[in-house]
């Protein structure tokens, strides 16, 4: 069995690049502020990279270039696989064009797979270029596909992850109509949670066989030892109340990694700050893991970046493994759930960490990481 490790990370959120995001997170800072990017809409709490919404291509270029530099790889990489996704793609570009059709739009540059195409162009890839879309679990699905490409022996290196630029009038209006948007901020698992807060960002990773990483003496952030992906097919937005499929995916992660629930040292929860997700996810974790396992969601600091959220979760969990520090659940004050939430950053012995994601439409994903 080929061992798959991560040797490079590129990550951008409203808190900054990977280093800046991590340091701000440990300090309990949040990038969420009340903003009004569109004149026709009221102000909402949002997490933006800049003062105005950033294009998908710009974010993709930033995270890919950072990942390559972090892994100390030189271009071109014709034998590198690509698996980069986005749940919303270039929707913002289409909305701008719909409002002013005199503005030229090259539709070939704005198709849903644009983040994967941009990545392939940057690295000079000549092999598989995959662009999965699985709602908020997109990031985990892309990493799982990259993992499989290496395990089969087809590639020694794959760049995988997800990017999102979801701050558009239609997306904001849609979530507002659903009653899913917060009015003041993001408070995962809190009694006073209001709903999700949209954020921009992305994270991509250099996945590599352990043999390849050792051959070039690369820094290793952690090893992927298991994953699980499936779909409830229960409801367009609500999670399945019996969390049967979510349970199966966690069991799949643990079985593939040959790890018991008692060996998990940290769970990075999806934690959207919505009523149903947090309730169901807390019950799921409580049903499968011992009460002392530390749990946190980082969306109170970064906002919910939709398809990129689970990839960002993986990036921050890898930093947790590297530094042996548990990140806090920013925005949580009082919880109604009997879980061991991380309230402040704290040093801890972390060997195994689990990242969870649960998207609209019942898209479920989990990644098991090892120090």
Automatic annotation (TrEMBL):
GO biological process, one term: fatty acid biosynthetic process
Organism: Euhalothece natronophila Z-M001
Domain Ketosynthase family 3 (KS3): 1-371
Name of protein: Beta-ketoacyl-ACP synthase
Sorted UniProt keywords: Transferase
PROSITE patterns reported in the protein's UniProt record: KS3_1, KS3_2
Family per similarity comment: Belongs to the thiolase-like superfamily. Beta-ketoacyl-ACP synthases family.
A GO MF label: 3-oxoacyl-[acyl-carrier-protein] synthase activity
Top-level taxon: Bacteria
Stored NCBIfam families: PRK05952.1
Transferase found in the keyword field: yes
SUPFAM superfamilies: Thiolase-like
Pfam families, A to Z: ketoacyl-synt (PF00109), Ketoacyl-synt_C (PF02801)
């Amino acid at each position: 069995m080929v061992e798959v490790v991560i040797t490079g990370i590129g990550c951008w959120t409203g808190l900054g690049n990977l280093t800046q995001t991590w340091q701000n997170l440990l300090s309990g800072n949040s990038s969420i502020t009340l903003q009004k990017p569109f004149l026709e809409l009221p102000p909402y709490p949002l997490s933006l990279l800049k003062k105005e919404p950033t294009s998908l291509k710009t974010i993709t270029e930033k995270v890919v270039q950072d990942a390559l530099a972090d892994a100390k790889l030189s271009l071109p990489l014709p034998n590198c696989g690509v698996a980069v996704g986005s749940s919303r793609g270039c929707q913002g570009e289409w909305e701008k064009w719909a409002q002013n059709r005199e503005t030229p739009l090259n539709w070939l540059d704005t198709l849903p797979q644009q983040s994967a195409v941009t990545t392939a162009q940057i690295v000079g890839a000549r092999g598989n270029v995959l662009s999965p879309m699985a709602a908020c679990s997109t990031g985990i699905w892309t990493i799982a596909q990259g993992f499989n490409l290496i395990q089969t022996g087809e590639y020694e290196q794959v760049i995988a992850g997800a990017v999102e630029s979801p701050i558009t009038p239609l997306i904001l209006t849609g979530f507002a109509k659903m009653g899913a948007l917060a009015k003041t901020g993001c408070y995962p698992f809190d009694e006073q949670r209001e709903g999700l807060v949209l954020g921009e960002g992305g994270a991509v990773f250099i996945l590599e066989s352990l043999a390849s990483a050792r051959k070039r003496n690369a820094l290793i952030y952690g090893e992927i030892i298991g994953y699980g992906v499936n779909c409830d097919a229960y409801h367009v937005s609500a999670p399945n109340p019996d969390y049967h499929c979510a349970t199966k995916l966690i069991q799949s992660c643990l079985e593939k990694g040959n790890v018991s629930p008692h060996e998990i040292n940290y769970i990075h929860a999806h934690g959207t700050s919505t009523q149903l997700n947090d309730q169901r996810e807390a019950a799921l974790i409580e049903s499968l893991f011992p009460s002392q396992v530390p749990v946190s969601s980082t969306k109170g600091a970064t906002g919910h970046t939709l398809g990129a959220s689970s990839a960002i979760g993986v990036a921050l969990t890898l930093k947790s493994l590297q530094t042996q520090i548990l990140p806090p659940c920013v925005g949580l004050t009082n919880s109604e759930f009997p879980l061991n939430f991380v309230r402040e950053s704290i040093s801890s012995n972390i060997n195994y960490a689990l990242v969870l994601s649960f998207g609209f439409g019942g898209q479920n994903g989990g990644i098991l990481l090892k120090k």
